[in-house]
UniProtKB/TrEMBL annotation:
Pathway, per record: Carbohydrate metabolism; galactose metabolism
Reactions listed under catalytic activity: UDP-alpha-D-glucose = UDP-alpha-D-galactose
GO molecular function: UDP-glucose 4-epimerase activity
Protein name per Swiss-Prot or TrEMBL: UDP-glucose 4-epimerase
Pfam families: Epimerase
Similarity comment text for this entry: Belongs to the NAD(P)-dependent epimerase/dehydratase family.
SUPFAM superfamilies: NAD(P)-binding Rossmann-fold domains
Enzyme Commission code: 5.1.3.2
InterPro entries with a match to the protein in the record: Epimerase_deHydtase, NAD(P)-bd_dom_sf, UDP_G4E
Keyword NAD (UniProt): yes
GO BP annotation list: galactose catabolic process via UDP-galactose, Leloir pathway
Organism: Serinibacter salmoneus
Higher taxonomy: Bacteria, Bacillati, Actinomycetota, Actinomycetes, Micrococcales
Length: 319
């Protein structure tokens, strides 16, 4: 038996694939390579280049590889861009998930770990987010992730599919120099690109109600995240009952200035960040409480901020 990893050629997905391998669990990867990289998938791992919208192809792959469960990471993940492309976002993230559920039902696959998002919370009224924090998504992306959670919950009731959803904020770092975050929208790649180009990275606002005046956010290492995806899948396979939703968070967060200082230390580049005006709607501090995930799915912050930054810099694309 094996597990299907959708989006397994992406930054997070490729780390999840490797974590399954380290646990001795076979996987098969489905990815349309719209943002993933074929060379991120190990040569020995079965790979299918396909869209989630191809229900029959998914069904055939699950049957052929005797898939027992799915880790669902594939989707359009850019919250800001989703505002300009809502129909594309819903097609990929909602219609795609429905297609996946149809294929799972046809193939008799009844376990799923869903890669959700802290974007489900929108801008919470409290700076420490728990699983009980009200969900008020503020973008089509966040809405699509919350709808995905609803779909799996309803499929659980109607079809007997066991499931859990993992919500997290900013995923950073690398478990190996071969797997970089190549997103054009994430903070770490933006800082790395600026430094590589000889530009000064920018901080948006330095007058927030935080110890150093810059925003505090949750940053978690991608390898730690991958470990908990595998732990959740293993728990489902063992018949353990999991919570419907878990936050994977640090509980305290890091400031933007701390990140800049860590990049200066990792790179040896002495720079003073440019201070730009605040961006509208940026709260002072938002971090997630990972207590429940630590209890049930081996969630730990095993990497320091400096290790996150150094591993991201070492994995930066070259040439």
């Amino acid at each position: 038996m094996s597990w299907l990893v959708t989006g397994g050629a992406g930054y997070i997905g490729s780390h999840v694939v490797r974590a399954f391998g380290e646990a001795g669990i076979d996987v098969v990867v489905v990815d349309d390579l719209s943002s993933g990289h074929r060379d991120y998938v190990p040569a020995h791992v079965p790979f299918l280049e396909a869209s989630l919208l191809e229900t029959d192809v998914l069904t055939e792959a699950m049957t052929e590889h005797r898939v027992a469960g799915v880790v669902h990471l594939a989707g359009f993940k850019y919250a800001g861009v989703s505002v300009q492309r809502p129909l594309h976002t819903y097609t990929q993230n909602v219609t795609g998930t429905i297609s996946l559920l149809k294929a799972m039902s046809s193939a008799g696959v009844d376990q799923v770990v869903f890669s959700s998002s802290a974007a489900c919370y929108g801008t919470p009224e409290t700076d420490l987010v728990t699983e009980q924090t009200p969900t008020r998504p503020e973008s089509p992306y966040g809405e699509s992730k919350l709808i995905g959670e609803w779909l799996f919950a309803n499929a659980g009731r109607a079809l007997g599919i066991t499931h859990t959803s993992l919500r997290y904020f900013n995923v950073v770092g690398s478990g190996t120099p071969q797997l970089a975050d190549t997103s054009p929208h994430n903070l770490f790649p933006l800082v790395i690109k600026a430094l590589e180009d000889g530009r000064t990275p920018r901080i948006y606002g330095a007058d927030y109600a935080t110890p150093d005046g810059t925003c505090v956010r949750d940053y978690v290492h991608v390898s730690d995240l991958a470990t908990s995806h595998v732990a959740a899948a293993t728990a489902l396979a063992q018949g353990r009952t999991l919570e419907p939703v878990y936050n994977l968070g640090s509980g305290d967060g890091s400031s933007v200035r701390e990140i800049m200082d860590a990049f200066a230390a990792a790179t040896g580049i002495d720079f003073t960040p440019e201070i730009a005006p605040r961006r509208a709607g940026d709260p002072d501090r938002i971090v997630a409480d990972g207590t429940l995930a630590a209890r049930d799915i081996d969630w730990q912050m095993r990497h320091t901020l400096q290790e996150m930054v150094t591993s991201a810099w070492d994995a930066r694309p070259r040439g």
